[in-house]
Write a structure and sequence with these properties.
- The protein is mainly alpha-helical and 139 residues long.
- The chain folds into two domains: 41 residues, no CATH class; 91 residues, His-Me finger endonuclease fold.
- The chain is 53% helix and 6% strand.
- β1 and β2 form a beta hairpin.
- α1 crosses α2.
- The longest helix is centred in the first third of the chain and has 18 residues.
- The chain is elongated, with a radius of gyration of 24 Å.
- The termini are far apart.
Length: 139
């Protein structure tokens, strides 16, 4: 009788587990190769949804709901955003520390927020700088 012993923790046949332990680099290469092959077969929409799920825990349904709640506008500058058109592509904004989703932004606002490192102090300083030079009276 040739029964395979099942690893009680992973539910994987022990021979597979032993191989992975003995040859971690080969096992990792195999997983990476399989992942690349699988990724190559996905459509553009499937890839986007998979990234949304992996990066933010969102589905297209969640994204659509957020889009409708914001009336298709960037939450900061109120310009039109799109879930389809790449030139108006909506960016999912999130807190990098807590991973909490804040809303959808246009590319410019998302870029700007990232470049000021999401710092309230820098944002206030930028406002003061703009106000300082907008109030200059030219003779």
């Amino acid at each position: 009788m040739n029964k395979k012993i099942i690893d009680e923790f992973t539910d994987i046949p022990c021979s597979v587990t032993r191989y992975r332990l003995r040859h971690p680099e080969r096992a990792a290469e195999g997983r990476k190769r399989y992942s690349k092959q699988r990724w190559a077969k996905l459509t553009k929409a499937e890839k986007r949804e998979e990234r949304l799920k992996k990066d933010y825990g969102l589905t297209f349904v969640d994204l659509d709901r957020m889009f409708v709640e914001q009336n298709g506008l960037c939450e900061i500058c109120k310009t039109e955003i799109s879930l389809i058109d790449n030139s108006l592509k909506a960016c999912v904004d999130h807190n990098h520390v807590t991973k909490q989703i804040r809303g959808l932004l246009c590319g410019n606002c998302n870029w700007g927020l990232g470049h000021i490192k999401e710092s309230r102090e820098i944002a206030i300083s930028m406002i003061k700088y703009i106000d300082k030079y907008n109030n200059v009276v030219t003779v």
